[in-house]
Amino acid sequence: MSVIVTDAGFATTDWAADLGAQDVLTLASDTNPHTVDLSAAPKLVRVEFPSSADGRGFTIARVLRDHGYTGKLRATGHVIADQYAMARRCGFDDVEISDDLAARQPEDQWKFRSDWRQNDYQSRLRRA
Amino acid sequence: MYKYSEFDTAFLAERNAQFRAQVERRIDGSLTEDEFKPLRLMNGLYLQLHAYMLRVAIPYGTLRSAQMRQLAMIAEKWDKGYGHFTTRQNIQYNWPKLRDVPDILDALGEVEMHAIQTSGNTIRNVTADHFAGAAADEVDDPRPVAELLRQWSTDHPEFQFLPRKFKFAVIGSEADRAVIRAHDIGVQLVEQDGKRGYRILVGGGLGRTPMIGKVIRDFLPEEDLLPYAEAIVSTYNILGRRDNKYKARIKITVHENGIDTYKELTEARFAELKPQFEGVDQEMLSSIRAQFAAPAFRNAPTDDFDAAYKADPVFRAWADTNLAAHKVEGYAIVSISLKKHGETPGDATAEQMRLIADLGEQYSHDDIRISHEQNVILPHVHKSDLPALHAALKTLGLATANIGLISDIIACPGMDYCALATARSIPVAQEIAQRFDALKMEHDIGPLKIKISGCINACGHHHVGHIGILGLDRAGVENYQITLGGDGTEEATIGQRTGPGFSYEEITDAIERIIRAYLEHRTDAQETFLEAYRRLGADPFKAALYPDKAEGKANAA
């Protein structure tokens, strides 16, 4: 089982649980985001993080957003609380972690990072 | 000089609070060691041979006196009373305790400093020409651009877990005093048809596979810098290898894919990113530039300098080696050597740091630089102040007249501190410096750069030393390989290996044989070692290094 993390903390239910297979696209961390076919307009794209040290998923998310994907984006796998703000800033909507990880890094550690809009050099440098 | 905005201050306070919590969460088990490691690294904390090491960023090598005093305070309060200045314009503390580190970071924050991204697979401290703003040959001061890049790269959400570390260096002149060709991205301020822009190099680096950076854009318009840099790194994050850490640097990515393919992918990504930068970064750059405005230079006579130069041979020797031309008449750029013969290259005691701070405040418009060659620079000193400055430097062993000479050696920490090292570097540097000091040959030899690395990772930049020394481990015994002809300037060249290495006991003698061969073969005292090597090739030096072999060859013939 897994836990979905949003800005509000640990979600009690997963809104995506009832989605059909055709609505969900899961991408491995070695996916080249520039060639992902989004023509089927998935409602949810899940990007896998095999290890918290593997940062490819952050670029995958940003490229998908830059290519116009407006559906939900989820980071799934070994994402730690310290990476929550990075994930949100790169365009992910939520993070899916294992029960074990959720037990080791309880909700308060994730909420500590939920104000991801604060103190963000990037948004400061980009927008007028 | 740059003063933190409210934003910078708030960011840093939050970041330090986060790290404090991360240390606690490591202790309570919330974070595993594998998870904690990249987090401590991106906050500058290494685990070394004997203890933790904290690497503090000195962005573009620039310090105010108050910052230098705080570095001295930290050295005394939380370390053993000294710090070590590195080849990437950082200062390292070798003995902090983990539980003290959050307090050290707060103390740094008080003077607008940090240790963010000085380690780990992130974009590292952005370095720059240590003569920036003072050199006569620059298009413009490169530091404002380096500060913009610092802000852009700090906590960049996409680039905190790259395949490998990633280093930027920025210069503002054709002369390359920051080794940009050995950086992942090198940025050179240029002017074309009256317009400012940048020459961008990519894929340089030393380490076990040395490569000279390749030009990816000969002229990048000024406003495109951040989206272009982002496109390069974004491309690397997807394309860079993660299966082998020795093949993970961008130099390998560019080499394996070819610069043309790499450029094509970068340009495609750039086209997507460019519209996201709406120009506010350029407004910020102008306001940063205003903060780097040149100080009010004074027009005063230099009689005191001229008199001391005539009267005092010790002052004259120092002035001849340690001063560089300043863009303003009557001023000089002063290099303070941290390479006193027999001392550890790059080390400074708290007392020395405080003296440097005082002198920087009094004589250099509160502007102090750290060079990648591990020396300190006072960039704006009026010549009339030089005799007094020199006298003050002498009191704490800071007046060594050896900048650019054989004892001005770059050396990595080596096996004395580093867990990766395969050989000692510091004692080799000390012995070479003392040997040539004892022989009183240093000034006769003239400009010569010796660079020493204690392992194949090449932190001591041995590949670009005129004489490079690489310390390896051969079956448990230190073995030192020599390379010749390397050059870290705009004519960047990787040095060539001479042949079999030498033992720890033999290496200083070997260097002396090279030097004696140079003195014998040079056309005159004007021909530098590097020029002589380029004219002669390696043969006369190899003959001097391996006399038995040369004899054997002669006999065979």
UniProtKB/TrEMBL annotation, chain A:
<dbReference type="InterPro" id="IPR008318">
    <property type="entry name" value="UCP030820"/>
</dbReference>
<dbReference type="Pfam" id="PF06073">
    <property type="entry name" value="DUF934"/>
</dbReference>
<protein>
    <submittedName>
        <fullName>DUF934 domain-containing protein</fullName>
    </submittedName>
</protein>
TrEMBL record, chain B:
<keyword id="KW-0411">Iron-sulfur</keyword>
<dbReference type="InterPro" id="IPR006067">
    <property type="entry name" value="NO2/SO3_Rdtase_4Fe4S_dom"/>
</dbReference>
<dbReference type="Pfam" id="PF01077">
    <property type="entry name" value="NIR_SIR"/>
</dbReference>
<feature type="domain" description="Nitrite/sulphite reductase 4Fe-4S">
    <location>
        <begin position="408"/>
        <end position="544"/>
    </location>
</feature>
<protein>
    <submittedName>
        <fullName>Nitrite/sulfite reductase</fullName>
    </submittedName>
</protein>
<dbReference type="Pfam" id="PF03460">
    <property type="entry name" value="NIR_SIR_ferr"/>
</dbReference>
<feature type="domain" description="Nitrite/Sulfite reductase ferredoxin-like">
    <location>
        <begin position="346"/>
        <end position="394"/>
    </location>
</feature>
<dbReference type="InterPro" id="IPR045854">
    <property type="entry name" value="NO2/SO3_Rdtase_4Fe4S_sf"/>
</dbReference>
<feature type="domain" description="Nitrite/Sulfite reductase ferredoxin-like">
    <location>
        <begin position="52"/>
        <end position="110"/>
    </location>
</feature>
<keyword id="KW-0408">Iron</keyword>
<dbReference type="InterPro" id="IPR051329">
    <property type="entry name" value="NIR_SIR_4Fe-4S"/>
</dbReference>
<feature type="domain" description="Nitrite/sulphite reductase 4Fe-4S">
    <location>
        <begin position="119"/>
        <end position="271"/>
    </location>
</feature>
<keyword id="KW-0560">Oxidoreductase</keyword>
<dbReference type="GO" id="GO:0051539">
    <property type="term" value="F:4 iron, 4 sulfur cluster binding"/>
</dbReference>
<dbReference type="InterPro" id="IPR005117">
    <property type="entry name" value="NiRdtase/SiRdtase_haem-b_fer"/>
</dbReference>
<dbReference type="InterPro" id="IPR036136">
    <property type="entry name" value="Nit/Sulf_reduc_fer-like_dom_sf"/>
</dbReference>
<dbReference type="GO" id="GO:0016491">
    <property type="term" value="F:oxidoreductase activity"/>
</dbReference>
<keyword id="KW-0349">Heme</keyword>
<dbReference type="GO" id="GO:0020037">
    <property type="term" value="F:heme binding"/>
</dbReference>
<dbReference type="GO" id="GO:0046872">
    <property type="term" value="F:metal ion binding"/>
</dbReference>
<keyword id="KW-0004">4Fe-4S</keyword>
<keyword id="KW-0479">Metal-binding</keyword>
